[in-house]
Amino acid sequence: MDKQAIGLAGLLATSGTLHFLVPRPFDSIVPRSLPGSRRIWTYASGAAELAIAAAIVVPRTRKLGGLAAAALFVGVFPANVKMAVDWRHATPAKRAIAYSRLPLQLPLIAWARRVAR
């Protein structure tokens, strides 16, 4: 398997696992406009990350997994915006983390698209 696919699958698997092991930070960035429990959204997005990681690992489903990863990175952008807004008065370190997540989505989307090819 190529290094690009392994790296992306590892990133998604790690993040997906963290959604279940330490859900509170993820709950806090779920946009309030989404219906239902924030925890359900945290678990659903974690499960999606794990499923996409598995799809990327399997050569036959890698293209679909890469495209799904790109869509996921687009879909979680509102959570990153919420984090940036919520942390605008936080410590400089927290602000740096929150603000750096916004442009980070673009290389993540590009990475996922490369894996899909």
Automatic annotation (TrEMBL):
Entry keyword annotation includes Ribosomal protein: no
Record-annotated Methylamine utilisation protein MauE domain positions: 5-75
Cellular localisation: Membrane
Membrane topology annotation: Multi-pass membrane protein
InterPro entries: Methylamine_util_MauE (IPR009908)
GO biological process: methylamine metabolic process
Pfam families linked to this entry: MauE (PF07291)
Key word Membrane present: yes
GO cellular component: membrane
Residue stretches spanning the membrane: 40-58, 64-85
Key words of the record: Membrane, Transmembrane, Transmembrane helix
Protein name: Membrane protein
Source taxonomy: Bacteria, Bacillati, Actinomycetota, Actinomycetes, Micromonosporales
